[in-house]
Write a structure and sequence with these properties.
By secondary structure, the chain is α+β, with helices and mostly antiparallel strands. The chain folds into two domains: about 100 residues, 2,3-Dihydroxybiphenyl 1,2-Dioxygenase, domain 1 (Roll); about 120 residues, 2,3-Dihydroxybiphenyl 1,2-Dioxygenase, domain 1, CATH 3.10.180.10. About 20% of the residues lie in helices and about 35% in strands. Strands 9, 10, 11, 12, 13, 14, 15, 16 and 17 form a nine-stranded mixed sheet that branches. An eight-stranded mixed sheet has the order 2-3-4-1-5-8-7-6. The chain starts with a strand and ends in a 5-residue tail after the last strand.
């Protein structure tokens, strides 16, 4: 069941949740919603236009991570199909929590959304927006994992022209987040995810993030790897933020 929308959750360890939320609110320029959930553990980063696609969660325990919410009309039916494709169901709370074959946590939800937010314009004339979730997969699980996401989403996909280790999944028109499944150099271990920004001026965007407390980990020809102030890795890319 192809998702009509995808949201990314920034899940943070409890001891530095607020610091992480503050950074991502400042970096995106989005407002933060009132907390919700049994313990006020969930909130939404609210763009000035369009529907939201970035959310935050304070974990009870465990390390920082990124997980996906796939928005579908029938979460229960979508979860059953995902299990058939190789997922493991973890819990059903009206929204269904699962793990991919490689171990990446994701949820099926039925929250409505349809309007992709515009890129955020900055004073220097550049623009940026989170545009992609990269799923990082060790070599041993890579083929199984990208085929799982192909079956799950039904999206068109291709090997990237930048690297044969990247398989790009193009979100249907109007959706905010595409997917990229990346083959890591490590042989084994769990799949995990990070966020990729698109920007019209990567150098200027990097300086903006550094001023907010990020640090550069690596520089490549088409992207820059950073970590936020709590150590969560993400990338700034030359991809079109619009």
């Amino acid at each position: 069941m192809s998702p009509f929308w995808v949201s990314a959750f920034l899940d943070s360890a409890p001891e530095h949740h607020q610091e992480g939320v503050g950074f991502w609110q400042a970096a995106t320029g989005y407002a933060i919603s009132a907390p919700r959930g049994e313990d006020g553990e969930f909130a939404t980063l609210v763009p000035p236009d369009g529907d939201d696609f970035l959310r935050v969660q304070r974990l009870r325990h465990g390390p920082d991570r990124v997980h996906l919410d796939l928005h579908v009309t029938d979460p229960r039916a979508a979860a059953d199909a995902a299990v058939t494709a190789g997922a493991v169901e973890l819990v059903d709370r009206g929204y269904v929590v699962l793990a991919s074959p490689g171990g990446l946590v994701f949820c099926f939800v039925d929250h409505p959304a349809a309007r992709r937010p515009a890129a955020t314009s900055h004073a220097d004339g550049s623009a940026s927006r989170v545009r992609q979730v990269a799923i990082d997969v060790p070599r041993a699980a890579y083929d199984v994992e990208w085929r799982f996401w192909a079956a799950l989403t039904g999206w068109e996909h291709r090997v990237s022209t930048i690297s044969e280790a990247f398989r790009v999944f193009d979100a249907p028109g109007g959706q905010p987040l595409g997917l990229l499944v990346q083959r890591l150099d490590e042989e084994d271990g769990p799949a995990r995810a990070h966020l990729d920004w698109g920007t019209t001026d990567r150098a200027a965007e990097t300086e903006r993030h550094l001023a907010l407390g990020a640090r550069v980990l690596a520089q490549h020809s088409h992207w820059t790897v950073l970590s936020d102030p709590v150590g969560r890795t993400y990338c700034l890319t030359d991809g079109d933020p619009a």
